[in-house]
């Protein structure tokens, strides 16, 4: 039977019926894997935002004179937009999988994901915020 409230214990089913933990070793390895995936999510989000920032830097500022100067056509712009969209899709998939893992309602899984997200943010996204102007959605899964 699936738990519908938070519980502590080493027996958990994470994402798939085949990913079951029944010993301390399998449980701790699963928590380490979830921690790493959550930190990787933050790394990929940082890469996506930096790539989007690089792709939009070549555009002229819309404040200067948008009606007087025609926007230069660049072949790189559609490629950059497509790459940003692919990274967004990968990040969304990872974010939703982490959310589904948390929905196992195992408190250890919840803590591993939250601490992994926080550690990934600290390692990959907390420094050099002055050049990170592109902020779309503060939600962890977007």
Task: List the keywords.
142 residues, mainly alpha, 3 helices, 2 strands
Secondary-structure topology with pairs:
Blueprint: E1 12-13, E2 20-21, H1 24-57, H2 76-102, H3 107-125
Helix pairs in contact: 1-2, 1-3
Question: How would you portray this structure in words?
Answer:
The chain is mostly helical and 142 residues long. It has a two-stranded antiparallel ribbon with strand order 1-2. It has one domain. The protein has helices at 24-57, 76-102, 107-125, and strands spanning 12-13, 20-21. 56% of the residues lie in helices and 3% in strands. The radius of gyration is 20 Å and the shape is elongated.
Radius of gyration: 20 Å
Strand order of the largest sheet: 1-2
Q: Largest sheet, if any?
A: 2 strands, antiparallel
Class based on secondary structure composition and strand pairing: mainly alpha
N to C succession of SSEs: EEHHH
Number of helices: 3
Tell me the count of domains: 1
Distance between the termini: 31 Å
Low-confidence runs: none
Strand content: under 5%
How many E-type strands?
A: 2
**Tell me, what's the shape?**
elongated
Question: Mean pLDDT across all residues, rounded?
Answer: 83
Determine the fraction of residues in helical runs and give it as a percent range.
55-70%
């Amino acid at each position: 039977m699936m738990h519908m409230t938070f519980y502590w214990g080493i027996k958990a089913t994470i994402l798939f019926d085949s990913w079951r933990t029944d010993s301390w070793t399998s449980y701790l390895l699963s928590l380490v894997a979830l921690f790493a995936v959550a930190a990787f999510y933050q790394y990929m989000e940082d890469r996506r935002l930096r790539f989007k920032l690089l792709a939009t830097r070549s555009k002229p500022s819309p404040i200067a004179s948008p009606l007087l100067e025609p926007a230069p056509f660049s072949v790189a712009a559609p490629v950059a937009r497509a790459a940003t969209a692919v990274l967004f899709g990968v990040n969304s998939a990872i974010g939703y999988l982490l959310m589904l893992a948390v929905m196992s309602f195992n408190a250890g899984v919840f803590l591993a994901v939250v601490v992994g997200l926080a550690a990934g943010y600290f390692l990959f996204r907390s420094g050099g915020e002055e050049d990170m102007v592109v902020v779309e959605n503060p939600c962890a899964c977007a």
